């Protein structure tokens, strides 16, 4: 915000006004009493001309108006992207392995680790580079757009990125503001303009902005160019709304109504002039679009834990082999071959260094046990898998013509692990579509008898407190206490020149428009704006007869303490009854002011508005005094209907083992009724209340709190807890004489014993505190928050998974969420179906990667015991390189994208299936050890199966003996076919893509082996694998061995599948028998009941 000072020495000849603007909230007291010092400010010279003709203008350095949302440039992409990627432990580890292979004489080629690492780095770089290119393209569309700058009393067209701080910019109707502007003048006589901020906060309603009072007349290029002014304003900060406003002569303190934000759109105003104060990356829009904190899923934490285990296995293998090598070589005959025999002195020289290099060589030999390609596969699975949510037609809403939206794909699997759901009420569980039900005036109810009002009488009768004038006063209060503006006929879109055009109303609150279409002309003197703390708003008006009235409307908890107590009782009965019926209530009060009282309020308001410090507190104090001792007129009841299938969705979430908490700002009775309607509370639920009802509520709450702690809890009974914001503040922020942590722990214990919790009268910060408290409990349960309004953003960001609803309160919640859905009912399928499947898929992917790499490396380790620990590799370098990249990567990727071990409809209709994978069930240590032992078993079968077959020296039909590379190739062939067929056995949902990648990968392995062996491409005949694969397949014994070893390896898995299928069939038969028995029992009962009724009727007739 800026302070506006109009200097008296204006040059009349040039019709130039000299203006200075200074900040308000960046001022602090200096050491001298009564003085204030400005800190952290910037000075903007309007039009780049100094205020005084004698002052030399020195241009300050501000950033240009370029918007840069991209991370990279053409010059820094390569080094910056590589730096970011090698910050990942796995990538850095493989880089070290690659450097060791380059520097040290290792048994394998640097290509074996360098090529997979290059593949992973390249794929990730291409993905990130493409995403950044899209951001560059979007930035250029904004930065290269044309704008008009006023220079030398003329309009000059420039690109948006060339706007400088201090430039005077002209913006026309339906154009977007190119930077943050101080509003100087407009085409409207009153100096106002209408703005929509849908791109900032999602609000599509019109907002009124006001030009600086002393520059409203400067509405031409010549006049605005003659303006000489300086602006001193605070440094850029991201808060869109928290700006104080001071309006006084000669000082002008400007607030949010004078600031036009970049990204907002001008509506229903021909043109405006504004001076650029914040440009480019210093605009509020740019500061608000900076990245959110990264959320990590439980799967990532499990992967890191498993990596540590496998890293320990790797170190153990390298240590064992290094030790045994030197134990074996302690025998002089085993030290070196005869042709390379060394003396004892030569053997002892650099022995420690050689031991270290041998250890590194073994690390290189076994490094493939760490699955480097798993990271890129997981990233691709998450990225591609997120499209299935967006493509889901059942999550498409015809009303808003939109479907589900994925803002981050890193948490897909977290959707299948949710334990706590925190939901807003209004607009989330309900439609947020208000329908007037009834009103209460002086205790008299009016319902279903109100006709449409075309207008009120233009005469002001006496303001009686009883009789007909009381009803008229009530309606006037509703009509006047609002923020509606008139849109003139010549500004209505599409009606210019239309013979039947007429003025229309626009408002930031759509429901207010219907209430004011018949309002008379009153002089609006002051508006005491609504805020969540006061929970009310007021207006001070002067009637046509000169009477001064203050009208106030707000929540009953805010109005009742400020009216005559004897007027409350009758209205309170209706308010409480309406709240119990689930209606939203609003109380209306008024106060007649004398001229003396108004003058006092007017003076205090102006003084508070001029305050440079503690301005908000001073304004609140004036509001509090002005709104005291009012007269209660009546109350309104508005129905907010439940959303379709919201009750069924909550029931499904409960059945899936999730605990649902409703966090709302509504009053307790309304929220409680809604919770019963949406089946959060059942009729059998025992409700526990911790709410503030009297001024001495602190003592009562403490007493109730400890009674709840000491009570006995029945396991078979369902409990529900209701708590309000005041009580929660006492528990979370107790007095100094109590223990905060003890209160929190006891409160949390009570909550955890309840199946459902309702928190009413909650502030946005309290919602986030509740989520944080549960999230940080023992066990770190996975939390999900869902809401539709800006007040839900804090809890959405706080939860592990944030869901935004594309509702009627703007898109701020959906923009700040991880996922966005059109309706609350779509949460059911998102969690029970998509979340369940994504978790199962990625858990299987992670376990499978560790399993297949253990199968891959264990034979390599065992082979060292038969080659004198000489670091001789078992597999060819090409096989080492291609195993994770080509031979086994695509089948598991397709599985992790398409697998449906249970039908989606079954998952949605049977919520209890969700509990089978909850608590990270598939990535616990027990399944991890199962997969590890399975990999170890199959690795032993691969190696020793082929080893025992090689005891017969004539495997070839012609009597020749197979060599070392044939031995490794047979092991590798059994390995590739086994791990691929293992995945085929695990697949329950076959598509053409599964068939293509599974059988295609095996065919590609065979093709590559022929190619690498020189059969297809004879130019490779010099390398060591020449015709090895072809010769291997000429042996019938080899074919038999491969088939037999594959069957032995997969036999335990086949046996488990058969036993599981038998058990499932028996379970289905048993359930069918139970269902048939229950149906027959019901039929027998019904027949007996009908027979008994018939007998009684016959007896009665006789």
Automatic annotation (TrEMBL):
Membrane topology type: Multi-pass membrane protein
GO cellular component: early endosome; endoplasmic reticulum membrane; plasma membrane; recycling endosome
P-type ATPase N-terminal domain: residues covered: 59-113
Chain segments annotated as transmembrane: 305-328, 359-378, 878-898, 928-950, 962-984, 996-1019, 1039-1059
Molecular function (Gene Ontology), one example: magnesium ion binding
Cofactor dependence: Mg(2+)
Residues given in the record as ATP binding sites: 424-426, 512, 530, 553, 584, 664-666, 761, 767, 791-792
Ranges for domain P-type ATPase A: 145-284
Any one Pfam family match given in the protein's UniProt record, by short name: Cation_ATPase
Cellular compartments annotated: Cell membrane; Early endosome; Endoplasmic reticulum membrane; Membrane
Top-level EC class: translocase
Catalytic activity: a 1,2-diacyl-sn-glycero-3-phospho-L-serine(out) + ATP + H2O = a 1,2-diacyl-sn-glycero-3-phospho-L-serine(in) + ADP + phosphate + H(+); ATP + H2O + phospholipidSide 1 = ADP + phosphate + phospholipidSide 2; a 1,2-diacyl-sn-glycero-3-phosphoethanolamine(out) + ATP + H2O = a 1,2-diacyl-sn-glycero-3-phosphoethanolamine(in) + ADP + phosphate + H(+)
S-adenosyl-L-methionine among keywords: no
Coiled coil: 591-618
GO biological process, one term: phospholipid translocation
Enzyme Commission number: 7.6.2.1
Keywords: ATP-binding, Cell membrane, Coiled coil, Endoplasmic reticulum, Endosome, Lipid transport, Magnesium, Membrane, Metal-binding, Nucleotide-binding, Phosphoprotein, Translocase, Transmembrane, Transmembrane helix, Transport
Active-site annotation: 424 (4-aspartylphosphate intermediate)
Ligand binding (Mg(2+)): 424, 426, 788, 792
Family matches, as InterPro entries: ATPase_P-typ_cyto_dom_N, ATPase_P-typ_P_site, ATPase_P-typ_TM_dom_sf, ATPase_P-typ_transduc_dom_A_sf, ATPase_P-type_domA, HAD-like_sf, HAD_sf, P-type_ATPase_IV
Predominant location category: membrane
Residue ranges of domain P-type ATPase C-terminal in the record: 815-1062
Family under the similarity heading: Belongs to the cation transport ATPase (P-type) (TC 3.A.3) family. Type IV subfamily.
Descriptive protein name: Phospholipid-transporting ATPase
């Amino acid at each position: 915000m800026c302070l506006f000072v109009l200097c008296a020495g204006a040059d009349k000849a040039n019709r130039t006004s000299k203006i200075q603007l200074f900040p308000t909230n960046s001022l602090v007291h200096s050491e001298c009493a009564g003085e204030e010092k400005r800190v952290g400010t910037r000075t903007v010279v309007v039009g780049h001309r100094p205020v005084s003709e004698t002052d030399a203008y020195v241009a300050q350095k501000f950033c240009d108006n370029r918007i840069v949302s991209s991370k990279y440039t053409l010059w820094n992409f390569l080094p910056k992207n590589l730096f970011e990627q090698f910050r990942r432990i796995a990538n850095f580890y493989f880089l070290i392995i690659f450097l060791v292979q380059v520097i040290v004489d290792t048994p394998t080629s640097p290509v074996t680790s360098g090529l997979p690492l290059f593949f992973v780095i390249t794929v990730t770089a291409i993905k990130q580079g493409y995403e950044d290119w899209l951001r560059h393209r979007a930035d250029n569309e904004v930065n290269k757009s044309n704008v008009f700058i006023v220079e030398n009393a003329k309009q000059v067209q420039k690109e948006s990125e060339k706007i400088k701080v201090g430039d005077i910019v002209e913006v026309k109707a339906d154009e977007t503001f190119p930077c943050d502007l101080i509003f100087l003048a407009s085409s409207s006589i009153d100096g106002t303009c209408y703005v929509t901020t849908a791109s900032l906060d999602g609000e599509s309603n019109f907002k009124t902005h006001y030009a600086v009072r002393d520059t409203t007349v400067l509405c031409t290029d010549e006049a605005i160019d003659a303006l000489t002014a300086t602006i001193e304003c605070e440094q850029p900060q991201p808060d869109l709304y928290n700006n104080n406003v001071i309006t006084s002569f000669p000082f002008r303190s400007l607030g949010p109504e004078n600031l036009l934000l970049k990204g907002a759109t001008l509506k229903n105003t021909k043109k405006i002039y504004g001076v650029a104060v914040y440009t480019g990356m210093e605009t509020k829009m740019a500061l608000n679009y900076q990245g959110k904190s990264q959320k990590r899923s439980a799967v990532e934490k499990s992967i890191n834990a498993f990596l540590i285990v496998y890293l320990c296995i790797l170190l153990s293998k390298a240590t064992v082999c290094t030790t045994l090598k030197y134990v074996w070589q302690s025998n002089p005959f085993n030290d070196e071959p005869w042709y390379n025999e060394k003396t004892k002195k030569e053997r002892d020289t650099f022995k420690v260094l050689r031991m270290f290099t041998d250890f590194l060589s073994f690390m290189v030999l076994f490094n493939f046990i760490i699955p480097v390609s798993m990271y890129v596969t997981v990233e691709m699975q998450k990225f591609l898998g997120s499209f299935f949510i967006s493509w889901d037609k059942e999550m498409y809403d015809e009303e808003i013509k939109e479907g589900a939206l994925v803002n981050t794909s890193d948490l897909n699997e977290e959707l299948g692990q949710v334990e706590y759901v925190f939901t807003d009420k209004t607009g989330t569980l309900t439609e947020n579509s208000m329908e007037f039900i009834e009103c209460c005036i002086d205790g008299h109810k009016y319902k279903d008898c109100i006709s449409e009002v075309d207008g009120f009488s233009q005469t002001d009768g006496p303001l009686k407190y009883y009789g007909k004038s009381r009803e008229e006063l009530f309606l006037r209060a509703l009509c006047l206490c609002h923020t509606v503006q008139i849109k003139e006929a010549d500004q209505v879109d599409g009606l210019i020149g239309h013979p039947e055009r007429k003025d229309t109303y626009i408002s930031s609150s759509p429901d207010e428009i219907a209430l004011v279409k018949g309002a008379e002309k009153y002089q609006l003197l002051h508006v005491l704006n609504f805020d969540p703390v006061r929970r009310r708003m007021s207006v001070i008006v002067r009637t046509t007869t000169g009477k001064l009235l203050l009208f106030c409307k707000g929540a009953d908890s805010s109005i009742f303490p400020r009216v005559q107590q004897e007027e409350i009782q009758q209205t309170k009965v209706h308010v409480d009854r309406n709240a119990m019926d689930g209606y939203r209530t609003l109380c209306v009060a008024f106060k007649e002011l004398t001229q003396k009282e108004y003058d006092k309020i007017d003076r205090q308001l102006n003084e508070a508005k001029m305050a440079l410090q503690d301005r908000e507190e001073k304004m609140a104090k004036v509001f509090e005094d002005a709104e005291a001792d009012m007269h209660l007129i009546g109350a309104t009841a508005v129905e907010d209907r439940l959303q379709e299938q919201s009750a069924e969705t909550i029931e499904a979430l409960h059945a899936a083992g999730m605990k649902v908490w409703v966090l709302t700002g509504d009053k307790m009775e309304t929220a409680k009724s809604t919770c019963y309607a949406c089946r959060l509370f059942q009729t059998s639920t025992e409700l526990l209340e911790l709410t503030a009802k009297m001024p001495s509520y602190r003592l009562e709450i403490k007493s109730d709190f400890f009674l709840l702690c000491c009570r006995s809890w029945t396991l078979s009974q369902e409990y529900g807890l209701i708590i309000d914001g005041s009580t929660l503040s006492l528990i979370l922020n107790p007095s100094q004489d109590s223990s905060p942590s003890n209160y929190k722990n006891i409160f949390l214990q009570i909550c955890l014993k309840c199946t459902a919790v309702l928190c009413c009268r909650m502030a946005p910060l309290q919602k986030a505190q509740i989520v944080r408290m549960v999230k940080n409990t023992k066990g770190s349960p996975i939390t999900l928050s869902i809401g539709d309004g800006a007040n839900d953003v804090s809890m959405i960001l706080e939860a592990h998974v944030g869901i935004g609803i594309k509702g009627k309160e703007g898109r701020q919640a959906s923009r700040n969420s991880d996922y966005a859905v059109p309706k609350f009912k779509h949460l059911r399928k998102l969690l029970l179906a998509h979340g369940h499947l994504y978790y199962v898929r990625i858990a299987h992917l992670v376990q499978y990667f560790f399993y297949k790499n253990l199968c891959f490396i264990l034979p390599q380790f065992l082979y060292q015991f038969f080659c004198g620990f000489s670091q001789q590799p078992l597999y060819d370098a090409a096989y080492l390189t291609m195993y994770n990249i080509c031979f086994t990567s695509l089948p598991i990727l397709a599985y992790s994208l398409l697998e449906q071990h249970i039908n989606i409809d079954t998952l949605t209709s049977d919520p209890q299936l969700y509990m089978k994978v909850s608590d990270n069930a598939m990535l616990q240590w027990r399944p991890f050890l199962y997969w590890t032992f399975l990999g170890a078993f199959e690795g032993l079968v691969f190696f020793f199966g082929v080893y025992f077959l090689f005891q017969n020296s004539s495997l070839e039909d012609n009597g020749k003996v197979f060599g070392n590379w044939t031995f490794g190739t047979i092991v590798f062939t059994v390995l590739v076919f086994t791990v691929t067929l293992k995945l085929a056995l695990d697949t329950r949902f076959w598509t053409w893509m599964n068939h293509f990648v599974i059988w295609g990968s095996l065919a590609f392995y065979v093709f590559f082996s022929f190619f690498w062996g020189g059969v297809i491409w004879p130019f490779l005949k010099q390398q060591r694998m020449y015709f090895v694969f072809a010769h291997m397949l000429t042996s019938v014994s080899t074919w038999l061995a491969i088939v037999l070893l594959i069957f032995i390896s997969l036999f335990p898995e086949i046996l488990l599948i058969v036993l599981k299928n038998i058990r499932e069939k028996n379970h289905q038969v048993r359930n069918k028998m139970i269902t048939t028995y229950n149906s027959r029992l019901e039929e027998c009962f019904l027949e007996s009941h009908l027979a008994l009724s018939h007998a009684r009727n016959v007896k009665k007739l006789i």
